[in-house]
Design goal:
The structure is a homodimer. By secondary structure, chain A is an all-alpha fold. Chain A folds into 4 domains: 57 residues, Orthogonal Bundle (Annexin V, domain 1); 72 residues, Annexin V, domain 1; 79 residues, Orthogonal Bundle (Annexin V, domain 1); 68 residues, Annexin (Annexin V, domain 1). Helices cover 70% and strands 1% of the residues of chain A. Chain A has 20 helices and 2 strands. Chain A has a two-stranded antiparallel sheet with strand order 1-2. In chain A, a hairpin with a 2-residue loop joins strand 1 and strand 2. Chain A is elongated and about 70 Å long. In chain A, 44% of the residues are buried. The interface between A and B is medium-sized, with 31 and 31 residues.
């Protein structure tokens, strides 16, 4: 469930006008901006962008980019875009702004988003960057990690409740044979994890646990070959995303806020992309695991307008 | 351009009635069936199926399957289905009814069909078979061929006229370096051929010819490793499909009808899938290359109702 609190009936023109006012003159009234856009859903934000464009012949997204700065600006930018454009931006940053792609983001979109949502993200990506997600991932990665990520993002997975118990058993055995002989690069692992439907894969992973007494993610830790590190981490991330998305997101946020500092990019990504989906459930999982609320953790690890904005998206009035 | 000759205004109910009559009593009036469905486009066939169902509470496709037989039945079955269902059937047969997938068919759909058409075929495939194209291809192939085919069918290619001349040059060099050192399994080959947009890839292949004096398909013949045979044939097929679809289809038909016999499956596939698209151009290319018309070749290599039906689709009254 969504965490944001928004009024049912709003006036896009009045909202656009209030944002315009907050941007004019010396300085910017960030609090006013948060109080509006932090309390609007995707449809309402779209109408505000349209109203702003009509009233002031100016792109609201660009205006906010120029008015705001730092992590706060990045978060607002991702929040004000329509969801699929935002996803395209996040994916592009993940693929291109690092030495190797931030495979976590690629995996999230490939495994947690529905095939139709993933397709919509790919379309938005092409419209924005004039290249395909597939060619960019392929270009910026290598070896087993590349093969795995390209297969993962390329598969238009079957969505349906049909599940083949025979396949679940035999593929659990195939996975176990490969892993127990330390044949971690076995292409069957890539095939099974990257192409099977979520329903089928969950059944296979359950059979694996039943027959071999432990989850496959534990067994994937047994590899000590440094060259396989990223690939195996990607495999484990994928299995987590497929098995339990909320638990996965909780872990992302937990790792992003620790004693060593805060990875704002990850915090922003989870909160902005899940606020209108399942952030409520993620908050519950977070509290259970950490005995501290996510709101409290955010309060401790962030500051200023950025903090105020995240807390608003988390459902604080 | 299309080759079929069809009247603009037809009555789906009258067509359904005439087909029903042709199916009733002793024997079947195949000529009557050909004279109707061989002269109807996709929309008209759809309306006939609907009218038949309404009038007789019976599925026309199933009725025709039970009335007809042999290659004629197979051709009619593929023709009477709606195009994306037909493609799903052809793809499924290509993937599952052989020891290894008939990669030619997979490559045709991946490279000659537009990304949107390929997506529609994937949807029809899932609706019909309750599995994804990707998982079936992955399951029924292995090694480099698998990696290549899964990448190819999975890529939602960018379609646009943008082309990066720098990339065309550098990737022509990458391809040539791999091929000249006989590193045919180099993963960069798979990446470039399976993920780049058609526009970009054609430019790269042209640069290759400019710089290295010969087409890449020729150079791919230099490998003598038997284990690579299918994979390299698939690579060459892909390059042909991307470079010149009509020339590719001409070759498929030419190889399918020779002294050793006739590969009716391939002949049917090309004629049925291209009749409403570019079969006219394929006929022209065929005549140029063979100095005999495609109609004449079909007349020589096929017989009976199957022959009559193919000739009708080829535009004979």
């Amino acid at each position: 469930m969504s965490t944001i609190i928004y009024p049912e009936n709003t006036s896009p023109a009045a909202d656009a006008e209030a944002i315009r006012k907050a941007c004019q003159g010396w300085g910017t009234d960030e609090k006013a901006i948060i109080s509006i856009i932090g309390h609007r859903n995707a449809t309402q934000k779209k109408l505000i962008r349209q109203a702003y464009e009509e009233l002031y012949c100016e792109d609201l997204v660009k205006r906010l980019e120029s008015e705001l700065s730092g992590q706060f600006e990045k978060a607002v930018y991702r929040w004000i875009l329509n969801p699929r454009d935002r996803d395209a931006v996040i994916l592009h940053v993940a693929i291109k702004e690092r030495a190797i792609p931030n495979y976590r983001v690629v995996i999230e979109y490939s495994c947690i988003y529905s095939p139709e949502e993933l397709l919509a993200v790919k379309r938005a990506y092409q419209a924005r960057y004039k290249t395909s997600v597939e060619e960019d991932i392929a270009q910026y990665s290598t070896g087993h990690l590349r093969q795995f990520l390209v297969g993962l993002v390329g598969t238009y997975r079957y969505v349906g409740d049909e599940l083949n118990a025979r396949v679940a058993n035999s593929e659990a055995d195939i996975l176990h044979n490969a892993i127990s002989t330390k044949d971690f690069n076995n292409e069957e692992i890539v095939r099974i994890i990257s192409t099977r439907s979520t329903t089928q894969l969950v059944a296979t992973l359950n059979r694996y646990k039943d027959h071999y007494g432990s989850s496959i993610t534990k067994h994937l830790l047994d590899d000590t070959n440094e060259g396989n590190k990223e690939y195996l981490l990607a495999l484990r991330t994928t299995i987590r995303c497929i098995s339990d998305p909320q638990k996965y997101y909780e872990k992302v946020i937990r790792y992003a806020m620790n004693e060593c500092g805060t990875d704002e990019e990850s915090v922003t990504r989870v909160i902005v992309t899940r606020a209108e989906k399942d952030l409520k459930e993620i908050k519950e999982v977070y509290y259970k695991r950490n005995s501290v609320t996510l709101d409290q953790a955010i309060t401790n690890h962030t500051s200023g307008n950025y903090k105020a904005f995240l807390l608003t998206l988390l459902g604080n009035e």
